[in-house]
Amino acid sequence: MCGIVGYYGPREPKEVILKGLKSLEYRGYDSAGVAILDHGHFKRVRAEGKLGNLENKLSGEKFDGRLGIGHTRWATHGRPSERNAHPHCVGGVSIVHNGIIENYAELRERLIAQGAIFESETDSELIAHLLSEEVKVQGDLLKSVLSVLPKLQGAYSVVAVWENQADTMVAFKNGPPLVLGVGKDEMFMASDIQAIMPYTKKVVFLEDNDVAWICGSEFKIVGRDGSERNPPLTEMEWSPEQVQKGGYQHYMLKEIFEQPRAVAAAISPHIQLDSQTVRLHQVGFSGAAPHELTRLNPESDWATTEKVFSEVDKVMIVACGTSYYAGMIGKYLIERLARVPVEIDIASEFRYRHPILDSKSLTIVISQSGETADTLAALRLVRAAGGKVLSICNVRNSSIDRESDGHLYMNAGAEIGVASTKAFTATMALIHVLAVAIAKVKGAISKDAEKIEVQALLAAPSHLDTVLAFEKFFAQAAEILKSVKGFLYMGRGAHYPIALEGALKLKELAYMHAEGYAAGEMKHGPLALIDEKMVIVMLAPSDELYDKTVSNLEEAKARGGKVISLGTGDNKRLKDLSDHYLALPEAPQVIYPLIETIPLQLLAYHVANSLGHDVDQPRNLAKSVTVE
Ligand code: M6R
Fold first, then answer.
1. Which residues contact 66 (CB under 8 A, 6 or more apart)?
2. Which residues of the chain fall below pLDDT 70?
3. Protein residue with its CA nearest to atom 8 in ligand 1
4. Are 170 and 187 in contact (CB under 8 A)?
5. Beta bridge partners of 89
6. Confidence (pLDDT) at 12
């Protein structure tokens, strides 16, 4: 995963790189480091752990050069340590790398046999060794990169510098993202535009196999064969987002509380309030790039979207983690409303299972970051087979957003906490709108039924607001909950994906054993786990499956489990069966998955917090998973 930054220009490279790394820390926080020119050589400073440790180490350091690179690491090869931190420097060449070199063992062995001495356990260091050998022969960094590239297998984005060319950076990629920023007399390279936008809005998104050569304030992009490419210089529309904690103890808590607004922002561009109807806005199937969507004519945009939907006879949804669970909700909604069959898959499975792809299926990929490697690979697979891809992303102009045929945006605002919260609920609401839109085009929904769905969605933000009040309950209950053996989250129908999501939140934040189960599956095995030390979280709002869910709760209760149940209003039956009963507000059935998500997020947040864990940056994880 990792975040990389490169800078050449008149500002203090240390300041630009540190600020850039700060905005990229979501990509990994196992270690960080910089290499900046000073008196003709790269001075390297590295620190294990979060960026703050590097900042402390750098506080008294001065550099007289104009060129530098920096890195924040999510460890793949080699444990998190200063020794394994980037940059890796060999013979005057310094590199930062994001990704995995798959043939590293073989290359490393060969280099060692030739006398190379490795100081780290990483796969990345060998790139510095290979380049340092090559610059001796070629006398030029770009030529050296072009000679080394054919030797590397795997996914990588790399920025390399060489002290003999003190105004030059060479960057190359195959997989993880890289963006070149073009300023006035200054140049930037970074994993994400966030690190560049404070300085310039002019960027070039590198494609796979591109090599970017920056020399002073000039640049060119060449292919692996050295031939020049002229990719477009994109002018970004960007205003810095509010990413402060706003008085909350953690970003995650702030993001949980932002959900009523995030859900409203996700659906409002697509809902016509006067007629209470749905019409998707700025989807761009006509070929507009994400940064051009605002210039679309709404009439022709909707007409092309209608055409795409009318030709679709199957929908596939592909995503990872929490986005995958939002996709599961999408399956329930699209099948129920539009009566179009939906297949759903985890991206890492989908890409290798030889899926049957044809031009009549629409693939929806979901990704908050828009950079998840497996989801991006799935998208490319579908497009290469001639299929259409509609992406649902939060980060605009991310790789997935840029490479999709159609685009929908979560509009959740920056999500900083590694555990996804508001992107999940925003996606569920947005995919509900999408399901209605497909249903309309397919003639599967009446005008009255459409209104009912729209009214339910419009009511969601205020119900989400109401359940935020459970904060107090979980803040108190966490003290007891943190010492139980484990958690089983259960639900039926559309509550089942929420059970999975609730369990994932607890696992990733509290590092406790938690499982999500379809309630009807309990007696096929997991019931054996239940004893008085096990907590059962039962999702049982009043809907057509309520009675069956309660029967499953009876079975679990009879085995001695401690029960927290979530139901509708003042429900005596659930209260009697539960150790704690949480009364959800009376609301349209179809939005209960949205509403019940918030208490589960609060549960995970408070248990993790009372265990003293770093809620925003849980161990071993990164916000953006750019390696497979
Ligand atoms: O950026 P994406 O939505 O593609 O990310 C997918 C998953 O990596 C992500 O949802 C992950 O599971 C979160 N840590 C869950 O909280």
1. 8, 9, 10, 13, 37, 166, 167
2. 238-243
3. 321
4. no
5. 94
6. 97
Nearest to 69, CA basis, from 211, 215, 171: 171
Domain ranges of the chain: 3-241, 244-467, 469-610
Please check whether the two domains, 3-241 and 469-610, share a CATH topology.
no
At residue 1, the pLDDT reads 78
Quote the ligand 1 centre to 398 CA distance (angstroms).
15
Task: State in Å: Cα 625 to ligand 1 middle.
Answer: 8
* Nearest alpha-carbon partner for 186 in 7, 395, 61: 7
List residues near ligand 1 (CB under 6 A): 320-323, 367-369, 372, 375, 418-420, 504, 508, 621, 625
CATH architecture of structural domain 3-241? 4-Layer Sandwich (3.60)
**Could you tell me which CATH class the domain 244-467 is placed in?**
alpha beta
Could you tell me the sign of the dihedral formed by the alpha carbons of 484, 488, 491, 494, in that order? Answer: positive
2: annotated active-site residue: yes
Model's pTM, two decimal places?
0.88
CA 432, 436, 439, 445 torsion: positive or negative? positive
CATH superfamily of 469-610: Glucose-6-phosphate isomerase like protein; domain 1 (3.40.50.10490)
Active-site annotation holder among 22, 507, 562, 623: 623
